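Session log. Operator J.P. requested a structure for one protein chain; no other inputs attached. Running the standard single-chain path with C-alpha cell output.
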Amino acid sequence: MHNPQTTSMTPATGATRISGLLVLFALATGRLGAADERKVDLQVGDRAPAFEAVDDQGKPWKSADHIGKKYVVLYFYPGDFTPGCTRQAQEFRDGMVKLADKGVEVVGVSGDSANTHYLFKKAQKLNFTLLTDENGDLARQFGVPVGKGGSVRIKGDDGQPILLKRNVTLSRWTFVLDKDGKIVSRNTNVTPAQDAKKVTELIEKLAKK
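Structure written below.
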C-alpha cells in the first residue's frame, strides 16, 4: 500500500506561518497599525522627498517650487497656540529678516487646519508659511513621529471662546535643506526657544563654505 507523504511542522515554523497569515489579513482588511508600518529614516545627506500640501491661506503649496532653489527650513511642531510652539514661531518670526537676507525660506508644519493656521499666523504676526498636515502624511514622509490629536481654546475677535481641534499631533523636528534639496541638518530634539538661533548659526556656517 502506498503511504501518502506527510510533512512535519515545527512549532517555530508554524508560528512563522501563522504570523505571516495574520499580517496578510491585516493588510487586506486595512487593520495594520501605524507601529507595523515601515518607518522612514531620513538622514543628513539624503534628498528631501517631494510633496504637496495646503498653506495657511488654503492654497496648494508644492515643494518643487521651493526646495532645491534656496535653503528651506522645514520645521514640524505639535500645534498652533500652544506655549512651546508659539515661542518657536515667534523666534523664527523675529529672525526672518536675517534668514531671508541669506536666501532662506522658513516653513512650519503641524496637524492643524488651514483655518487654524490662518488664525495663529494673524495672532502672532508671522512672516513665513505654515502648512497643514491634518492626517500626518507629510510628517511620515520625513520620518517624524505622529501622535493622537488634541485641542486648544482661544478667544475670537469678539472675545468669545473658540475650540480648535486637530486630528494628529506631530513631534517637534526641524530639517534644514540645502539648495540641492538635500538634508544638511536633522534635529529631533528641538528646544523651541533656541531653534531659530541654531538654524541661523548653521546657515551662517554653510554660507562661509
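Operator note: The longest helix spans residues 11-29.
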